[in-house]
Amino acid sequence: MPLRVTFLGTAGAIPTTERNPSSVFVAREGEGLLFDAGEGTQRQMMRFGTGFSVSHLFVTHLHGDHVLGIPGLLQTMAFNDRTEPLAIHTPHGTRRQLKSLVNALDNRPSFPVRISEVGGGDVAYRAEEYEVRAFDTDHDTRSVGYALVEDDRKGRFDRERAEELGVPVGPQFSRLHEGETVELEDGTVVDPEQVVGEPRPGRAIVYTGDTRPAEATIEAADEPDLLIHDATFADDRAERAADTAHSTARQAAEIANRAGADRLALMHLSSRYAGQTDAHLEQAREVFAGDETDVFVPDDGQNLEIEYPDG
Question: Which among 268, 272, 7, 243 is positioned nearest to 139, based on CA atoms?
Fold first, then answer.
């Protein structure tokens, strides 16, 4: 079941010629989810081939580099004759401002746009096999992060053991795998626990948006496969990071360690580093508990396939 992350915009507040403002696209089984939409997001979606089939947009906060792409994106969707509704999730207390942005220049979308407010601990979106949870972040405005967390999967079915117990090949295999007890022709009862292993974890992606290091990030998901964390500054501007409610690359790696993250993507790099990411990578890798190749600064347009933990 594919789960793909496309980094549409990885810059800080000021874009560069190489990096667009913040936006991350996640595709899961044909469903498109968008996290933030900085200026130019619609062009990045065209450039990197994600398409515009977005069902939910998750906004971390209302600073311009995270939301100024929304009016243009909605207009493009309308020009493409969209009729499906779009759900937008935004932090508590920001719905009115976001609605004004959606209707900028009195350009009301031709399709339904539903805006809901979320806070830390809320389930912003519950799908059939996963949910997107909001968690509190520590920025200088109302803000949240989001964690996409899949449900546990069924345990592996032990066909060999089932046959040893006399279960005939066929529908009873499926019933056992679905958790039902079956009775064989000779009266023998076989329970699912005899032939089905322990539930297997799904996948999880955590996206912080802009934030200082925050305890809620650690609790957002249990050992996420990918943590996408604010890393606006390197150590040389650690005080600046604290003053402006951002994180350094080293702090992002410390949070990743405590969260048990498998991989760490360093996002929202300040334009003052002018594409020089060596310091960010070196400082994060000094403290990250995993393989150093699992810490990276994504380029705009980079895709990442998230595999199941057990293959």
Answer: 243
With a cut of 50, list the residues of the chain below it in pLDDT: none
* Helix 278-287, helix 249-259: angle, nearest 10: 30
Q: What is the pLDDT of residue 214?
A: 98
Concatenating the DSSP letter of every residue in 200-257 gives: B---EEEE--S-B--HHHHHSSSS-SEEEEE--B-GGGHHHHHHTT--BHHHHHHHHH
Nearest to 137 by CA among 300, 268, 238, 39: 268
What is the C-alpha to C-alpha distance for residues 25 and 91, in angstroms, rounded to an integer? Answer: 19
Q: What is the pLDDT of residue 88?
A: 98
285-297 confidence digits (pLDDT tens): 999 998 999 999 9
Rounded distance between C-alpha atoms, residue 303 and residue 295, angstroms: 15
Q: Let me know: does 11 contact 25? Beta carbons within 8 Å.
A: no
Helix (H) / strand (E) element for 67: namely helix 64-67
In Å, what is the CA distance from 211 to each residue of 63, 110, 144? 12, 34, 9
**Cβ atoms 146, 133 nearer than 8 A:** yes
Question: What pLDDT is stored for residue 304 in this prediction?
Answer: 97
Catalytically active residues are 65
224 touches 204 (CB < 8 A): yes
pLDDT digits (tens, 9 = 90+) for 10-50: 999 999 999 999 999 999 998 999 999 999 999 999 999 99
Question: What pLDDT does residue 311 have?
Answer: 55
CB 57 within 8 A of CB 70: yes
The model's pTM:
0.91
- Looking at residue 180, its amino acid is E
**Contacts for 295 with CB less than 8 Å, ≥ 6 apart:** 253, 256, 263, 264, 266, 281, 284, 285, 288
pLDDT of residue 30: 87
Sheet holding 295-296, edge to edge: 123-126, 130-136, 144-150, 204-207, 226-230, 263-267, 295-296
Q: Rg for the chain (alpha carbons), in Å?
A: 22
